[in-house]
Write a structure and sequence with these properties.
The protein is an alpha/beta fold. The protein contains 23 helices and 15 strands. Strand 10 and strand 11 form a beta hairpin. The two termini are 47 Å apart.
Length: 545
């Protein structure tokens, strides 16, 4: 390939509220367009189809994978006419969601593959006819580099078992010893073959604009398939819009356009909110997927993806992307990782971790890093707070034809009664252990103290906080102050939460907690109450947006 062609750069300008943002698509390069559903990715792809110079190959995400017939029916004249018409249709706004002549278009891809295969073999035969046994074409044929050979190598790389063969002058599929029509392949196989055929048969310097290649394809197939297709055509450029956030992890040199949102003006997008990442080298690999799929503000919370934290905080902060990390240390690592490379992205990362009886100095240190401990023990303190229990009691009363106050009192009574003396000791002991550990750590000598203190023994005496903590807990139990108990203690390690659920006539905690999420989603007043309980974090998240 000529050096000048290798260096060719095509620029796509994306209108934003602050002016155009330029995306460079290089011949031999790859740019991914990433973002959540509804952010305007497909509209941005369609803009690229209209504005990027020819030759362009557009593969719309809305395109079905079926064929018109079991066998090819296109004539050369019909294929040429279809190609000209498709180029014009692709530039119309409706091509984003309404594929034009899609089944014939798929057949055109196979027609091009068949034509390229036949021409490859004819050229080789002619060279052998002219040059005899010394013809380089003999080695070329033996190297399995014909268009169909290249397609099959890509299918193998994409973990697909089907292969393409020429059978009785027609392209067909082969699986094992069974040969059958391409139309009878699975949806995923047809999608992969059509996409590979488009790319293999295109002219040099073509810019491929591909929208959602993962449709009909399992992630174990689409990621290696894309990598193989890009590697197969170093003489072309690629702009690929995808929901498969792992794909860029396998293409370290790829550029990335993070689409956050867009503003529609009728049927056209007037501006996008995007980040163009020229390099992701400084972003910790473990956090790249979190960044790629996020909004402008990203909140890491403590807990698993199946726990209570992520769905509740997603409801409380709908303009924030919420990601769950299993432990407090992982939340801290994630926030510090993204804040440490702020120069390559525009996402603001925050953390939210369980309070767990944390000492004030530790809370202050974490908040200085953008990580906010809950002002109560854990997320259950929100789900089972007084306001939420009363709201759910009211909902249950309407459903069951009961009295809301009586339901709530019954739930509170059963919850308090469920706390055994052994559980009181356990709950008080858990808080006392954390308090004692924090006090001990705060009094340990530092390096300078050790150096200046010589070889003397070190002793620390601390009064046990347990007796006072147990007395405090028993006072809350005696006063039936369930809100204080839920806020201060790890009550999920007792029977309290299950008793509340049963007292409100739910089968179990899981049913109660689902009802809470439903109520929070529908009740803005309750949502604001819970947001207020989070203290400074709510204001910081709003400023982050």
């Amino acid at each position: 390939m000529p050096e000048a062609e290798q260096q060719e750069v095509i620029t796509l300008e994306i209108p934003t509220e602050t002016g155009p943002s330029a995306v460079e698509i290089k011949i031999g390069g790859l740019v991914y367009v990433l973002g959540r559903n509804g952010t305007g990715k497909s509209a941005l792809v369609q803009r690229a189809v209209v504005n990027i110079r020819e030759p362009v190959r557009y593969v719309p995400g809305s395109r079905p994978s079926m064929f018109q017939n079991d066998s090819l029916t296109l004539t050369p004249a019909a294929a040429l006419q279809h190609e000209q018409n498709a180029a014009a249709q692709d530039k119309l706004p409706g091509s984003r969601y309404r594929p034009w002549n899609d089944r014939v278009r798929n057949e055109k891809s196979i027609y091009d593959l068949y034509s390229a295969e036949i021409q490859f073999k004819i050229d080789a035969a002619e060279e052998i006819r002219l040059q005899g046994a010394a013809a380089p074409a003999i080695a070329l044929l033996q190297s399995n580099t014909s268009p169909v050979d290249r397609i099959n190598a890509l299918l193998m790389q994409g973990n697909l078992e089907v292969r393409i063969v020429v059978d009785h002058g027609e392209l067909k599929a082969k699986r094992g010893e069974h040969v059958f029509s391409l139309a009878k392949m699975s949806d995923g196989e047809r999608s992969a073959v059509v996409l590979a055929s488009e790319i293999i048969t295109a002219a040099p310097s073509t810019i491929f604009i591909i929208d959602e290649p993962e449709r009909h394809l399992h992630r174990a197939i689409v990621v290696p398939l894309i990598a193989g297709l890009v590697a197969e055509r170093p003489d072309c450029g690629f702009l690929i819009s995808t929901h498969e956030l792992d794909a860029p992890l396998h293409s370290e040199e790829a550029g990335i356009v993070l689409v956050r949102s867009c503003i529609w003006n009728g049927e056209q997008v007037s501006t996008w909110d995007v980040d163009v990442l020229l390099s992701t080298d400084t972003i910790p690999e473990s956090l790249r997927v979190d960044l790629y799929g996020s909004r402008r503000t990203l909140l890491f919370v403590e807990g698993q993806s199946t726990s209570l934290d992520q769905p509740l905080y997603s409801l409380l902060f709908p303009e924030v992307s919420v990601r769950a990390k299993e432990a407090c240390t992982e939340v801290i690592r994630a926030v510090n990782g993204l804040r440490g490379c702020q120069d390559v992205h525009h996402v603001t990362a925050f953390g939210l971790v369980d309070g767990d009886g944390m000492a004030d100095d530790r809370i202050a240190a974490l908040e200085g890093q953008g990580i906010y401990p809950l002002p109560f023990y854990s997320v259950e303190s929100l789900f089972y707070s007084k306001e939420v229990v009363e709201a759910i009691a009211g909902r249950q009363a309407e459903t069951l034809g009961a009295n809301a106050v009586e339901l709530k009192d019954q739930a509170y009574g059963e919850a308090v009664a469920s706390i055994t003396q052994e559980q009181k000791q356990h709950l008080a002991g858990r808080i006392s252990e954390r308090e004692l550990r924090d006090s001990l750590l705060s009094q340990l000598p530092r390096e300078r103290d050790l150096v200046e203190g010589g070889n003397h023994n070190i002793s620390v005496e601390l009064p046990s906080p347990y007796p006072d903590e147990l007395a405090l807990l028993e006072g809350h139990v005696g006063a039936s102050d369930l809100d204080a108990l839920v806020a201060r203690y790890p009550v999920r390690e007792s029977g309290v939460l299950g008793a509340i659920a049963q007292g409100l006539h739910f089968n179990n905690r899981a049913d109660y907690e689902k009802a809470v999420l439903s109520k929070v989603a529908a009740d803005d007043g309750l949502r604001q109450v819970l947001i207020a309980k989070l203290g400074r974090l709510a204001a910081e998240l709003q400023n982050g947006n």
